[in-house]
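subagent[fold] <- orchestrator: predict structure for attached chain, return tokens only, no commentary.
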Amino acid sequence: MHNRHPPPHVRALEAHLGSRDVARVIYGAVLGLALVVALERHPPTAGQTLGAVIATALAVGLAEVYSEFVGTEARERRHIGRAEVRRLAAEAVPVTFGAGFPALFFLLAAAGVIELQAAFTLAKWTGLALICAYGFLASRLAGSGSGAALLHASAVGAIGGALIAVKALLH
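subagent[fold] -> orchestrator:
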């Protein structure tokens, strides 16, 4: 007998892919990737890079909350309450996560588990892989075949690839 109910992790992934969180994670990942590429030119210590990535992720998340707060008040001509501020903060978590994800690699470098250059390499390529994976999944969910989805993922990933390529040319 075929199980018609997907396992919880598949349902969670499907729910995530059907939400606005996808756009926010991608936006954050592009910002995180840009920061990593910029810092790599004259790399600070692992701890300083970790701090910069975390501070940037928090600043991006707070900017998301602030801009939505002000935008809502201006658009709807009313003050927003605490419950709406909490909702806005929850909606900012994905962009904060996307921008802050590279911190993991710099934490490992600061702890001496990996070298600083390896942290930069992992941060860049996992950021690019994340952007491409979302592009592929979005295209598949939109009905594309595997080949077209790979082409779509490549096009979407070109943004991150361009950041890495520009950095490589300037280094």
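orchestrator: received. Logging for downstream: Helices lie at 8-17, 21-40, 46-76, 82-100, 103-110, 116-141, 146-170. The two ends are 58 Å apart (CA to CA).
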